[in-house]
């Protein structure tokens, strides 16, 4: 690396992270920067414009850095490639005003604020003093968010009515968890007695901000967007898909690929279902049978502990055989997600110093009985060898990459593609030999193929193929998409509804799982073909997990070189 007067791409990238944390303390909290714990971002139009200026200035610095001697090596080249692609995609979204209509069930400033509290340090009285200050910042953060939405209304940049109604419902749940107090008050109740009055007052103010935003959305925003389309059309979809996938996709080819995977997986599901319920009319009839008669975990605490054991066993089995894991990467925690969020499980990365470990989160949706078939491959995806091994490994090797590549430079399709590849890897290694667990895995694979079909299909209004078992020849709508999903998934109706709202809110994100998996598999096969009999899967895994994030086209190129 060069001196700070003549920075190379990695130094430019890491300077960007430092400047971004100053503007976005939530990002700082995710990275484990304790100085961020007392602050929240400016979600007003001015705050978003400041982030856009930072991106433009960084791209200008990157132009200069890439012309310097020493910028042509693989490490610098890969970092510069990622930084340019990410910032360009972010600016395209900003210039289109997408930040002025961020309303939905999981990817909004409101969700970012709440989730930040779930990973803020809570070990000491000093930690809780910072939390009290952050709680006092919630009203201003929500007011800035509202100002952005108000500007969106002025510019006729509308969120869809369905995501709006869903978010209003979530805010209602955040405002009253059923005990006569809001989520922030519940969270603050765990604080020390010495700060009780301060925490309670700040938490009540935060709940008041939730109520105020909810009431404004209900009174002003929802009527204003009534009649607006829930789908985004080809131009907006292509821009958003670029942001989530790190490349300009051939959307019609991706739609056809989704259908090809649908038919392939359906054939495998029928074979597996026959082992569970001979003569079952559909694979989902066999899964419904498992809902009643299959193996289950009873109890919320029990399922959390069971998932922890599943990840611990996977680490013990895979370390030294198919991966080579540092001791700090071996630590991962199973958690239960706070209520009032989306229905899908998720993962949060470790802090940069690993003082906060990687964590998987299970939304219970009020349930206390959990079928095993629906958990095993999902936790191979969310935990080990999925998100945890990739994102914790990035944190572990950040010094040899750059801070940017290991953290905020993440491309969604790269990460979700690895996690889906991880599920397939466990199937390849024989960990899903039990018919219940394997049918559950195939059901999860089918969900990802269905996502490609309906996410692209409904936003672009594409025609359903003539060989489809469902409404052949018709054009996709959100209503048809929800019906199709429900007919080809074991998930309950509330999960399906939550997922459809997510796709309407984050167009192009859900397709990255299957398209990302395809990129990982293609990169592996090209590397295997290049090495022949000398191909070492463990070495390839560790090299692949140690190169940081890349968009899908760049990912295939880099994986093939390993």
From TrEMBL:
Name of this protein: DUF885 domain-containing protein
PANTHER family: DUF885 DOMAIN-CONTAINING PROTEIN, GLR0591 PROTEIN
UniProt-listed InterPro entries: DUF885
